[in-house]
Amino acid sequence: MNKLLSTICCTLLVCVCEAQTMRVWMKDGSERQYAVSEIESVTFSEEGTSMEQLKKEIEQFLDYWNAAMIAADTVRLGAMMDDDIILRHITGMTQTKREWLEEVASGSMKYHKIEKRNVVVTSNSDGNASVSFTSVITATIWGSYGTWTLNGNMRLVKRNGKWIRVD
Questions:
Q1: pLDDT at 95 over 90
Q2: What are the backbone dihedrals phi and psi of residue 161, each rounded to the nearest 5 degrees, phi first?
Q3: CA–CA dist 65, 15 (Å, integer)
């Protein structure tokens, strides 16, 4: 498993997730296909990480987050979020973790494709991180299919060596 993650992290150029499959195009031009279930939530390095390493970890967290959204993997998404998180929809509506995961599981929120752009990672003195980014999301939300460009922000904390979304 660690070799698989190392291979993906070190040689990934482009990644597209479809249903339960992740296609990865390698630097050498070859293409590999992995089941999303093969890619576990990653345990990251210890505190005191360099800013370069922190950015790499957070980018990887976002990649796993997006893959789990596309795969509707509510178990993985749930493990990546704090239990008390409140999520805000583009309409301004808020949802608890449980409410959002139920929407994803039922298919009323189905994510087809997600591109991340303009990722900016900041760290604070307590070792936590904030990330802002732009996502281009193609989804079917409550029966409406479309592509939306959204500006996102996440606050992440490291617990037991794993990044967890708290905001």
A1: yes
A2: 80, 5
A3: 13
Length of the chain: 167
pTM of the predicted structure, to 2 decimals: 0.69
Residues 6+ apart with CB under 8 A from 145: 138, 139
C-alpha dist (Å) from residue 97 to 58, 90, 94, 150, 153: 20, 16, 10, 20, 16
Cβ(33)–Cβ(76) below 8 Å = no
**Token pair 């967290």 is at which residue?**
61
Per the listing, tokens 């950015």 go with 55
The residues that bridge with 34 in the sheet, in sequence order, are 22
Are 132 and 123 spatial neighbours (Cβ–Cβ below 8 Å)? no
The pLDDT tens digits for 96-108 are: 999 999 999 999 9
Token couple for 127: 């070792």
Nearest to 39 by CA among 26, 55, 66, 47: 66
DSSP 124: -
Q: Is the dihedral of CA 44, 45, 47, 50 positive or negative?
A: negative
